[in-house]
Amino acid sequence: MSAVWLTIAGLAVTTATVKGSGPLTLGGRALPGPLLLVITLLAPALLAALVITQTFAEDETLVLDARAAGVGAAAVAIAVRAPLLVTIVVAAVVTAGLRALA
Amino acid sequence: MSSSGESFRAGIRIGIPLAAASLLLGISFGVLAEPVMGEVGPIVMSAIVFAGSAQFAATAVLADGGGAAAAIVAGTLLNARFLPMGIALAPSVRGRPLWRALVGQAIIDASWALANRGGGRFDVHYMLGATIVNYPAWVAGTAIGALAGGALGDPSDLGLDAVFPAFFLGLLANELRGALSVGAALVGAAVALALTPFAPPGVPVLAACAGALLGLRRL
């Protein structure tokens, strides 16, 4: 099997395992009280980290490019309560526009 | 009319704009992966892996001449965040073991965050609806990119790489209710920012889960 197909098969197995193991082993059971607030706070912590890495990370370096300007424009759209679809279109248009000008 | 059916349909409705973004991102994945994996490989990968950031990472490793093991490790690291997300989801997932494991496959960042009802509860049917429209969009986008990529040009020219961080920022804004959630977001962002120059891709986001430990403070 070539490296490509080995990668595809291996990644399919690890992804299914990582995604399925929580619901499989703990499904339907109430989590102990102390964990509940931690779980609730996972979403803001994870989303903030995803915004940071997908805006500023290029492999293992931090970069400031047109993408950051696009996400900044999206922040303005969110602040004026624009719908989510408008927000992401604003981000793409501003990013593409700046790259076209560069 | 069951409320789970209503949740499922509401999930589909919220999932449509998200699927549009995934279609565009799938196209960019297909364009980038085709020279590395050929025309069929990227499509099969999107169909059976269905995890965008992990697919981009594994493809980048292969493109740089890395082997399968390194590519699988890189992709799996980017997916590691799905483990705590699955644990958070678990109390809301009922039914037989096989069904619960299948529901876990529907975890993608946006659907999971949208289905979060606070207080540790998730609307599982809402998540399933939001993911089910995303899957064909991601696979079809990959196919378009892999088969017709040359004619489309560079996806970054279209600003597509800004779509998902903007989307996550919108979801984040909805999550910020009160000082603790703002604190968790700030810690998460700071950890990701601090670790990016030093840790392999995927590790900064996983480590950012530590921001949620602020929840232990009040106990």
Word description of this protein:
- The complex is a heterodimer of chains A (102) and B (219).
- In chain A, a hairpin with a 2-residue loop joins strand 1 (57-58) and strand 2 (61-62).
- The model of chain A has no long low-confidence stretch (mean pLDDT 91).
- Chain A is mainly alpha-helical and 102 residues long.
- Chain A has a two-stranded antiparallel sheet with strand order 1-2.
- In chain A, helix 3 packs antiparallel against helix 4.
- Chain A is built from 4 helices and 2 strands.
- Chain B is built from 11 helices and 2 strands.
- Chain B has helices spanning 3-37, 40-48, 52-63, 68-79, 82-89, 97-105, 109-114, 124-152, 163-175, 179-195, 203-207; strands spanning 116-118, 121-122.
- Chain B has a two-stranded antiparallel sheet with strand order 1-2.
- In chain B, helix 1 (3-37) runs antiparallel to helix 2 and helix 3 (52-63) packs antiparallel against helix 4 (68-79).
- The longest helix of chain B has 35 residues, at 3-37.
- Chain B is globular, with a radius of gyration of 18 Å.
- At the A-B interface, helix 1, helix 2, strand 2, helix 3 and helix 4 of A face helix 1, helix 2, helix 3, helix 4 and helix 5 of B.
